[in-house]
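Kindly inspect what follows.
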Amino acid sequence: MFGMGFTEIIVIVIIAILFLGPEKLPSAMVDIAKFFRNMKKTISEVKENLEEEVNMSEIKAEALAYKQELLDAQEDITKTTKLADINETSHKKEEPKNV
């Protein structure tokens, strides 16, 4: 736990008993446990938020790629339509000459 061995934990417990006394130690342990529980909860919430943000950025990148594909397709359709209009115009100009 936190890179501490058993002997370090025992030393911390002995210092806590000497500093707090046996009467206050149980309530202090409860407070410490609540603190670590809240920290764990906060860390997991932050991790979830980061994962959501990463997922949102991936979705945004995909949406931009689809948008670019649609713009390219629209440009192709516009070019094709303009070519068709040019061809129709050239055919209409030729028809009156034959009449």
